[in-house]
Amino acid sequence: MTRPRPPSSPPLFLPLAFLLLLPSETSSFFLPSRIPSLSSRACRLSSPYSTASPVHCLHASTLNEQRHEEEDEEEEVSTTGSGNPSTTYIVSRPDNSQDLRTFLVPPSVLVSLPLPNAVYIYGNFSSMSKARKLIRKGQVLINDSNGNTCEGTVRGGDVITIVPPVAPKEKKGKGGKDGGQGRGIKKVTVLYEDNDLAVIVKPAGVAVHGTGSYSLVEEYANFLTPTTRGEEEALDKPMHAHRLDAPVGGLLVIAKTKTALQGLLSAFLERKVKKTYQTIVIGRPSPESGDITTEVEEKEAFTHFKVLETVPSLTFGCLSLLELSPETGRKHQLRRHCLDLNTPILGDIRYGPQNTLRTRGLFLWSVGVSFTHPVTGKNEAFEVGLPEIFGNTMNMERRKAETQLVQEKGKGDKVVDDKGKD
Fold first, then answer.
1. Pair 245, 223: CB distance under 8 Å
2. In this predicted model, what pLDDT tens digit does every residue of 15-67 receive, in sequence order?
3. Model pTM?
4. Which CATH class is domain 97-162?
5. CATH fold label, 18-93+177-390
């Protein structure tokens, strides 16, 4: 059902605290059509899948200039833009030293107590989920013994110790060199940066801004160059102008000055920013393009979709690569709207079917963003390629289906030959 779009008027003032009210994943507002004139600062793609050479892995100059030439297991995406060369910063692991402690289960506890409850209560942690997370990571020892699970129990007098997480084993790269530091390491690519803002490629699996002990917002100052606009104009720390859900990767716009942040927030609110996503969904929408207007949480929501490619799949029937252009930014809007098309996003364990791929992440990526620069007034456009896992997954499903088809055809031809001999 198509609903009329209410007129929007520019706000007189947007406080910086408004940022905290923005919903996640697609927390922005968009124009229904592309900006007609775009800057040449863009990463153009020759195909839906990334085939460009990997971006070199670099620490930002604000940390150090040490070059990491070894291969890392974390996937690369094509980010070949003009103007500023893109660099990649290794997001450090969160400092969880504040979690380390040793405590005693009181001797007065005479019955078996579930381990998560004991860690939460006697360890003085903030939540039960935090206690379970420490146990699952193998950081909880009972009387100096490891291998404990959330189903374990303790009794009065037991000593519980929280230890640091086990460091990932280093792997050897090509040529015998030390390779990457494991899939736990996340890399942020700075695609573009000037004195007022930056555009980065956020890795999937990292929260942008949350209530937990670690989020990407705390890392911005480590890999972005400080602005020279002066103390009155500079933000205390760089701040994103919109959000992406933790499992979603891709382009993210960050402001470094107050003018840039307020201008970007106004542009998102007034739907003057164009964002494009690509996703792999289970099935194929019919029709192949159109608008989804289903309300999300009783609020209007608009998403334009278009099928880019479909491949057969033995497991799912078929998989389709879609381009999504949201005009509103409701919570989980794209995931819910794809479900409304009866084509849930692959890897979506919340809205997808039970047999969705549960170990490869959410196949949703922010691939394009266009906006008017809030300081220079120029139209800017940026694009980024999909991670290789998108193309690899589509190709793998297609090959499996084609192989089975050939095998079935061969069996059919053999039956015909046998009947002819009889």
1. no
2. 444 444 444 444 433 333 332 332 333 333 333 443 332 232 223 332 233 32
3. 0.62
4. alpha beta
5. Pseudouridine synthase (3.30.2350)
